[in-house]
Write a structure and sequence with these properties.
The protein contains 15 helices and four strands. The protein is mainly alpha-helical. It has one domain (3-200, 281-410). The active site is at 275, 356 (proton donor).
Length: 411
């Protein structure tokens, strides 16, 4: 057991302990009094049901984390990754094929490990509380599709980086950053038109009161949009959503059919005004730039250690291995990701506040508050998350924080 393996195991345990502590704090904080601003959202019976729903999700999440950390520690201590990599090398002479097979097996194992928890959550917890609309056939088909899409994306990224490393040596990170930049842009441009249709049907929002209201509001905000789609989210869940994707001529607004059912026209327009605010503030572009900057930094550091024999040896490898090196390196990034996660969430929450303010300054603050309340109740969201959990894990402000900020703008 070398020093790097000990460090990796320590990081795995650190992440588990941190997530467990945050979960515990959140569970204890659930009984905290509801802020006066949110009084009346639930009656006593509804709030008791919401509390049971949160506890059920917490139990599933805690069990999943526990199983994952035990399995990870066993794999590390037994050198399973190294043995599997040696087997891949013995079966395939070509380095790129060995790389593809290695990550296929790793991702397949992770998928198989997570399926029981996803199945229980969908057909027990979500079903019991009236959210699930997914059939068993849809669930299993989604699992296959998600796995294949994730693997194809992983394969493209890994093959690109590996080939650049073979051609350019340690300076590969510069061109790898360029390659990943193009890849990220392409995914953002075509996600809604290529990937989403593999799971859900999207149809243009038909002419009528809602489309007219959206177009009129967009015109007042000097936002040109023609692509407004409705997605059949009710195929899987009663939970509602809306999102904005793409940029330039590829930008589109996507509404869940459940959102249209649950909110009024004014509330839907307000929710979309929030999304338009993100576009006006270039939040998607800024997020991409940050992601690319982080990728460049990671690749540069990786280029300094990619040829180190200690990385594959830490996972049980007995020979140089690009696959083991990149896997070990990703595990060593755990404390950095833990430290950066609150920073990323602080920036994300700041962007959400600004998008809310954009909607409020266009006279849609009251409708946005009303819509947010309905969405919160309909999804049984936590009204009293622990402040430390919000600081660490929440990419959006809490409902209370958002309403408080919107009300200040309206005054």
């Amino acid at each position: 057991m070398n020093a790097i393996l000990v460090i990796i195991i320590a990081f795995v345990l650190l992440e588990f302990v941190l997530s467990s502590v945050l979960s515990y704090l959140n569970g204890r904080w659930m009984t905290h009094p509801i802020p006066q601003l949110l009084q009346g959202l639930y009656d006593e019976q509804q709030y008791a049901k919401q509390q049971h729903y949160m506890r059920a999700n917490r139990r599933v999440s805690s069990l999943k984390r526990g199983v994952e950390v035990v399995v990870t520690l066993v794999l590390l201590a037994a050198g399973v990754y190294g043995r599997y990599d040696n087997w891949c090398k013995s079966c395939f002479d070509t380095g790129i094929v060995e790389l593809l097979v290695f990550f296929f097996g790793c991702q397949l194992f992770i998928e198989i490990l997570s399926i029981p928890f996803s199945y229980y959550s969908t057909f027990n917890v979500e079903q019991r509380y009236g959210f699930n609309k997914t059939t068993a056939a849809t669930f299993w088909l989604d699992c296959v599709k998600e796995f294949l899409i994730e693997y194809v994306m992983t394969a493209i990224v890994m093959c690109g980086i590996f080939l650049l490393f073979q051609w350019l040596g340690s300076s590969f990170w510069i061109w790898a950053t360029c390659f990943l930049t193009v890849f990220i842009v392409i995914v953002n441009l075509f996600y809604s038109s290529v990937i989403v249709p593999l799971f859900n049907k999207q149809t243009p929002l038909e002419a009528g009161i809602l489309r007219q209201a959206i177009e009129q509001a967009a015109a007042r905000m000097q936002f040109k949009i023609k692509n407004i789609y409705v997605i059949n989210g009710s195929k899987r869940s009663t939970k509602a959503n809306a999102y904005f994707t793409g940029f330039g001529p590829k930008k589109r607004i996507v509404l869940y059919d459940t959102l249209i059912e649950q909110l009024s026209t004014d509330e839907i327009v307000a929710v979309l005004a929030h999304e338009i605010g993100h576009y006006k503030h270039h939040d998607t572009l800024i997020g991409m730039v940050r992601a690319i900057a982080m990728v460049a930094a990671y690749l540069w550091v990786f280029s300094l250690v990619v040829s180190s024999p200690e990385l594959p040896a830490a996972l049980g490898g007995t020979a140089p291995s690009f696959a083991l090196s990149i896997l070990a390196f990703s595990m060593l990034l755990t404390p950095i990701e833990i430290a950066l996660n609150p920073v990323a969430n602080i920036l994300s929450r700041r962007a959400e506040y600004k998008a809310d303010a954009f909607a409020a300054r266009h006279g849609l603050g009251a409708a946005l508050v009303s819509g947010l309340k309905k969405l919160s109740v309909n999804t049984m969201s936590n009204l009293t998350p622990h402040p430390l959990v919000v600081w660490f894990n929440y990419s959006h402000p809490t409902l209370y924080q958002r309403i408080l900020a919107i009300n200040k703008i309206q005054k």
